[in-house]
Amino acid sequence: MPDLISNLAALPSASGAARASASSIETVKITQPLDSLLALGETVDAEVVSVKAGAQDFQLLLRLSLAGGGVATITASSLKPLPQGTALLVSHLAGGAALVATQERGNGAPLILTRIDTQALPVGTLLQGKVSSSQMLPQIAGQPAVYKAMVTLLNTAQAGNILAIESPQPLRLGSLLSAQVMSDQSLNFVPLSGRMDQLAVAQQLGAQQSRQGSLDSLLSAVQNLRQNPDLAPPTRAGLERLLATLPDVQQMADPKTVAQAVVASGAFLEANLLNGQPAPDLKSALLRLMAQIAPGALPNPTAHPGVAANVLAQVLPGRVRNALNAWGQVSEKTVPASFPLPARTAQKSEGEDDLEHLLRLAGAAVARLQSHQLAGLEQTGRTPEGATQTTWQLEIPMRHLHDFIPLQVKVQREDPPPDQQPADRNDARPAQEKIWRLDLAFDLDALGPLQVQAQLAHGSLSSQLWAQRPETALLIENQLDDLRQRLQASGLNVADLQCHQGTAPQGARTRLEQRWVDETA
């Protein structure tokens, strides 16, 4: 990626100039005959489908709305870039000529910005955009290569407009950029997180959370449906395998079972596939189940979960696809990276049979697991103090008699900044230790919703518990001394242990350590 996106001069009023040019008549050269499409003198509506920057002009692909409802695509070129979606009028003139004019679409039409308006975008503004086209300009002997790109802005008041830029490095098509407006009206590229693009993660997280559904709803439906005598044997076997992989609540008292449940939660499926170490887990089991109950079984969905998801989107019954889309559109807005994820249950739609309902619940369960994965990625990065924070967020469904209890887990590790570590073995400064944080959330019928937050730092464990029911909070409060003794017997130094009635505070700044005494002060 370039460190500097240059060749952007100041513009006293880019907004007005660009808007005026967007509504004026544009001369576009049609590069193919219109005789077979339009009658002489006929004028039709057209729309810019794609735009690509060339050496001397811009290559356009236009979609024509023909008389009688037909549609045709033609190629054209223009000296000025036209944004995708621009409405045009194409007229067939005598001698094979064509006249192309833009249509007015009001103030909502996208603008082409070739310069920066420092009044609308002051120095220091952080711009985020998506590369829609990129191509190398003709190279002059002895001069470095220059690439011309079109970037659709995603933030600020200019969101939706297109910025034409030149860069010394090629920009990958579809990539997301973050750049800061400099004093000389150039753009200074701001490197994104090493493993991810935070903007893309936030966008995906919002989409996944709108489609997610509770795991216990799916598992209850699986348990009820497996008793159906009309169920095909392969499908019944798939339901049995899914339930057999779930640990029992009593088994979760064993640390080895806990470790196995974390690995099998589905949070590491993609990482294992990338490392060539695929292993059965909850997410792959759900994909396999969807393949079994959807029309047209998929070949080996576990080995290629991304491909499986794309194919499943095509084979899902239309009624189920519509229900999934509608459920996502009408769902409530979810706060990004919230913990725990709220419970969501999809009711059976009218005319929907058991397998279609199960397919919809399985798709929502996969979206829930992916919401946890994306939430962990969103919270991974540098803290304001310079420490490196890594977050894993996942969900483990547990069996309890005839019920299912989803256990939501968030683990955070904070590594101190490099400059706080001793430079060598002779350095007398004490090494800064890692800080571990653990969040748990679950709901037991007898106790109600519970949340646990714990932190291990400097060899000391601090923990706080929240119970929504007053009687549960009182019960836990009376058992804290016994819990402290059991933790100390395990070799832990317990610094603080409290229980509260209500729910745990939410938000990035409500850290537990703000309530605890700093023993190093």
TrEMBL record:
Q: Which InterPro entries match?
A: Flagellar_hook_control-like_C, FliK-like_C_sf
| Pfam family for this entry, one | Flg_hook
Residue intervals of the Flagellar hook-length control protein-like C-terminal domain: 427-507
Keywords, A to Z, come to: Cell projection, Cilium, Flagellum
Q: Report what the protein is called.
A: Flagellar hook-length control protein FliK
User: Which species does the entry assign this protein to?
Assistant: Pseudomonas rhizosphaerae
Traced from the root, the source organism's taxonomic lineage reads: Bacteria, Pseudomonadati, Pseudomonadota, Gammaproteobacteria, Pseudomonadales
